Amino acid sequence: MPRATPLGVACAALAAVLLAGCGPKLVRTPVFQKDKPGVRVELQRREKSGTVIARGFDQPATIADVRIAHILASLSFEDREKKRRPAVRSEHVYDLAAGISEALAQATPDDVVAAAAFPEDRRLGIFSDNRVTSFLLHLEADSMQIEFMNIEDPLEKEGAKVGFQEYQIPSELPALAPSFTLPTGESITRLGNRGVSVAWRDDVFRRPVSLTGRDAKGKKRTVLMELPPEKEAGATAPKLPRPEGLSDEQTGALDKVDAARASGAITEGEYQRRRRLILENKLEEAGDETKP
């Protein structure tokens, strides 16, 4: 077998770099961060050759942060010992919900919402065990799909302990099987081995939820505020900005679908679907109701 020359090794390394540069590029857009308790939310998308890779999710969307808090508080996991605990600790629920609500309002159909919480446990009043819970989230019609990369894992980077400021939320699910399982519940179904699909519009997520703390010396219970009776989603949803360069046909179609949303004639999910098709200039697919 011929020996590799230094020039050959250099050429191979250059080729590897060039090939890597041709692959999809991950773009992160920070949305929300809080240091205590540690919480971070961002938008992630991939681009190739300067073009965003299409995902086709039903976003942007307006979802009340209280409803998202109810959803997060309803999620639980079982560890290897079959002990069941909340997937998101109570001290992180409110801040995560606020960040996710803001991210979904900004998200395009090609973005994924990435969120992380950084629990901290004290031992002997001196030592700290820093952990991370992170997940990816997106909307498909009336389904909120949540997939967890970590739940209560040690906060590490390449095997070494790090602060949460140095942690980057992963963009892909780990290949290894998780050390946790996610039980199903009312309006919550299983999604692969790391996720759940939540029917986020269901009235169950309007109910107050009891949150239990992790302090072994004294459990705290907090009840989330119950949402007032909801109007149709489109009646209170803010008007979304329009990109420049739309044709007269697209502008007229947007006017009609905005009016249908405001009157409650179509659901928020249907509005987001039609709006996306109009912006892609697929007026026939958007439906007769949007034709100017």
How would you briefly describe this protein structure?
With 292 residues, the protein is of the alpha+beta class.
Give a verbal description of the structure:
It is a single chain. The chain is α+β, with helices and mostly antiparallel strands and 292 residues long. 27% of the residues lie in helices and 29% in strands. It has seven helices and 15 strands. Strands 1, 2, 3, 6, 7, 8, 9, 12 and 13 form a nine-stranded antiparallel beta sheet that branches. Strand 2 (38-48) and strand 3 (51-52) form a beta hairpin. Helix 2 (65-74) packs across helix 3. The N and C termini lie far apart (71 Å).
Number of strands: 15
- How does the major sheet shape up? 9 strands, antiparallel
Average pLDDT score: 82
Order of helices and strands: HEEEHEEHEEEEEEEEEEHHHH
Q: Counting H and I runs of at least 4 residues, what is the number of helices? A: 7
Q: What class, by secondary structure content? A: alpha+beta
Give the DSSP E fraction (strand runs of 2 or more residues): 25-35%
First-residue to last-residue Cα separation: 71 Å
As residue ranges, the low-confidence spans are 215-219, 230-235
Tell the overall outline.
Answer: globular
Q: Cα-atom Rg, whole angstroms?
A: 22 Å
The helix content is 25-40%
Task: Give the key terms.
single chain; 292 residues; alpha+beta; nine-stranded antiparallel β-sheet; two-stranded antiparallel ribbon; 7 helices; 15 strands; 27% helix; 29% strand; globular
